[in-house]
Write a structure and sequence with these properties.
By secondary structure, the protein is of the alpha+beta class. It has one domain. It is built from four helices and five strands, in the order ααββββααβ. It has a five-stranded antiparallel sheet. α1 crosses α4 and α3 packs antiparallel against α4. The radius of gyration is 16 Å and the shape is elongated. The protein starts with a helix and ends with a strand.
Length: 109
């Protein structure tokens, strides 16, 4: 199988996995809840400070991860499946209308 085909297949898989995990109606059932005081790690990464909640989207983390992979490993051949899956997750995360909104009013639970 060619490198390009592997990349496209992993991109589609990454997109689909991110869609399943990050869908607002499904993730609470699939992922456990993990929280330390005002920092929530799962199902989303959020920091609660005062009356605000700072929400770090998965596409932002995956973008940083892709940048590190491209800087650390020269060429496009290395870790092709990992890069494709991460890029698929970035594309999926950028579909949401609140994709650039990082600060939200705090919601009590």
């Amino acid at each position: 199988m060619s490198t390009f085909t592997i990349f496209i297949l992993s991109l589609l898989c990454g997109y689909y996995i991110s869609l399943i995990i990050s869908h607002p109606n499904h993730k609470k059932k699939m992922l456990p809840s993990l929280r330390f005081k005002n920092v929530e790690i799962l199902p989303n990464v959020r920091i609660h400070i005062g009356g605000k909640t700072y929400w770090f989207h998965h596409w932002a983390f995956l973008s940083i991860f892709i940048a590190v992979l491209f800087i650390t490993y020269e060429g496009f051949q290395h870790f092709m499946m990992l890069k494709g899956a991460a890029l698929g997750g970035v594309f999926q995360g950028l579909r949401y209308p609140d994709r650039f909104k990082f600060r939200h009013p705090r919601v009590s639970r």
